[in-house]
Amino acid sequence: MTASNIFPHKFGGWLDAPARRWINRDGSPGGIIAETATVHEAAIIPETSVVWPGASIGDGASIGDGASIGDGARIGDGARIGDGARIGYRASIGDGASIGYRASIGDGASIGDGAKYDANDWMMV
């Protein structure tokens, strides 16, 4: 990606950081990605989604329309993030996890891979 693809963006209306427009593997236009975010080339990020600085998105992850992936958040391989979902600052969504439509995952939360939960636990959002 050349330097001409980088532009200033105001994440969340307050955090100024360099960003670029993601291009999905199929060539379709993707969302706004902070320059310091790490996104696997096989990730799918719709045009209306935003990935904040320091976030990472794994192989085959799918981000829903209008979703926001917070500063320093980690989305694991094959994870699915629903439309309009908000993933908080430094939250971790594990490999293969599924986050529903308009869900809000708080700052520092850990869901799925590596999270401290019992197989019989339920989480309602």
In short:
By secondary structure, the protein is mainly β. It has no helices and 15 strands. A 7-stranded mixed β-sheet has the order 1-2-3-5-8-11-14, with no helix packed on it. Strands 4-6-9-12-15 form a 5-stranded parallel β-sheet, with no helix packed on it.
Proportion of residues in extended strands = 35-45%
Q: How many helical elements?
A: 0
Report the average pLDDT across residues. 90
The end-to-end span amounts to 38 Å
Unreliable runs: 116-122
Report on the architecture of this protein.
By secondary structure, this protein is mainly beta. Helices cover 0% and strands 35% of the residues. It contains no helices and 15 strands. The protein has strands at residues 7-11, 15-23, 29-34, 38-39, 50-51, 56-57, 62-63, 68-69, 74-75, 80-81, 86-87, 92-93, 98-99, 104-105, 110-111. The strands form 3 sheets. The protein has a 7-stranded mixed sheet, with no helix packed on it. A hairpin with a 3-residue loop joins β1 (7-11) and β2. It starts with 6 loop residues before the first strand and ends in a 14-residue tail after the last strand.
Characteristics:
single chain, 5-stranded parallel beta sheet, 15 strands
Mind sketching the topology for me?
Elements: E1 7-11, E2 15-23, E3 29-34, E4 38-39, E5 50-51, E6 56-57, E7 62-63, E8 68-69, E9 74-75, E10 80-81, E11 86-87, E12 92-93, E13 98-99, E14 104-105, E15 110-111
Parallel strand pairs: 3-5, 4-6, 5-8, 6-9, 7-10, 8-11, 9-12, 10-13, 11-14, 12-15
Antiparallel strand pairs: 1-2, 2-3
